[in-house]
Specification:
5-stranded antiparallel sheet, 368 residues, binds pyridoxal-5'-phosphate
Length: 368
């Protein structure tokens, strides 16, 4: 591994393999595994991650939007790709790249049926999403009869799967609610298959669902954060390995006298002699302003260094008073020990937001 010379996001693809194998071992061998690679594979690199997972034999991918699926197809990914939140304006691109739409309302279902007819598609794979309590996307249980009616004898499409999404799989206080969502999904899928007359794939669980409710795995599970190394729980975090480490270097050291200030709006004022290090990354790289003014921290030679003052667009300043370090030394923003989850928690956010926010300006560097 070369020494860090600028801000990089180091992505460890063998950790990805470890996490994938760990999660797969928690479900039955015949249960399919869908890797969620939306938002640049949670801020890492969707193409590299998908190529690795495809080589490991993953069954399905999911992205949020059509453009994300197009990017994977253009990189040569052949595994089925579910588009979780498609918009009708992109249906030409979607079917051109053989991406599979998740249809969640009568409006989008009708638009896709019209598109399929117009383009004379044959048995084009579609997925139907039901709302079981998240109240985000999805048909209602009461819609089943009307859905089946609208797709009967429509040979241009083929329902591949039914899905729903759980609201609080990581929250032990919401076990009862999660159970009610699982029950509701079971009823919906039974009724749908009965009226539709065909058996289809059924899937419900996200990462924390796999970890806490594996009995509800149905025919497929969908994991995002888990394959990237987080389990929304200290116990599972220990078994998983974060794939991404954000590293940088010290650009410059400053000695600050009592009463002097650091950064914009003079947000930090020194009470004693202090040393600060200026680092080449800021809110434009994904370290938001909420990490400023002592909330967030970085690690330098194993020591915690708090972010002082306001986060700038391209820089942060950290307090290195008492830490032996020099300009050019490596700085870990988050990694295997001081994880993205821990840094996120310091500033009232979650690993998902911190990871997906690392901007495309930060160079990705891969280890396998
Ligand atoms: C993002 C997403 C997932 C992945 O959730 P994780 O908690 O990251 O495993 C699964 N299903 C749907 C519908 C999603 O939008």
């Amino acid at each position: 591994m070369p020494t860090t010379k600028e801000t990089i996001l180091e992505i460890n693809l063998s950790h990805l393999e470890h996490n994938y194998n760990y999660l797969k071992a928690l479900i039955k061998p015949e249960t399919k595994f869908l890797g969620v690679v939306k938002a640049f594979a949670y801020g890492s690199d969707a193409v590299k991650v998908a190529i690795k997972l495809e080589s490991l034999g993953i069954d399905y991918f999911a992205v949020a939007y059509t453009s994300e699926g197009v990017m994977l197809r253009e990189a040569g990914i052949e595994t089925p790709i579910l588009v979780l939140h498609p918009q009708a304006v992109n249906f030409d691109l979607l079917t051109l790249h053989h991406l599979e739409p998740n249809l969640y309302s009568f409006r989008i279902l009708k638009k896709f049926l019209d598109h399929a007819k117009q383009h004379r598609l044959k048995k084009y794979p579609i997925h139907l999403k039901f709302n079981t309590g998240l109240n985000r996307l999805g048909f209602a249980k009461e819609d089943i009869t009307a859905i089946v009616k609208s797709i009967t004898n429509r040979n241009e499409i083929n329902v591949v799967s039914l899905l729903s999404h759980l609201a609080a799989t990581e929250d032990v206080n919401e076990k009862e609610f999660t159970q009610s969502q699982i029950e509701s999904f079971t009823k919906i899928t039974n009724e749908f298959e009965l009226i539709h007359g065909n058996v289809v794939l059924k899937h419900l669980l996200n990462t924390s669902g796999i970890l806490n409710y594996s009995e509800a795995q149905f025919d497929m599970v969908r994991s995002g954060i888990g394959i990237y190394g987080f389990g929304n729980d200290a116990k599972f975090d220990k078994a998983l390995k974060p794939i991404a480490s954000l590293k940088t270097i010290i650009s410059q050291l400053h000695t600050i006298k009592p009463g002097e200030s650091v950064g914009y709006n003079r947000a930090y004022k020194a009470k004693k002699m202090q040393v600060t290090a200026t680092l080449p990354l800021g809110h434009a790289d994904g370290i938001g302003r909420h990490f400023g003014n002592g909330a967030g921290y970085v690690t330098i030679h194993g020591h915690k260094a708090e972010i002082v003052g306001n986060v700038c667009m391209d820089m942060i300043m950290v307090d290195v008073t008492g830490i032996e370090c020099k300009e050019g030394d490596e700085v870990i923003i988050f990694g295997e020990l001081n994880t993205a989850e821990m840094l996120a928690a310091s500033s009232n956010t979650i690993s998902y937001e911190l990871l997906t926010g690392i901007s495309q300006r930060v160079k990705r560097y891969f280890i396998d």
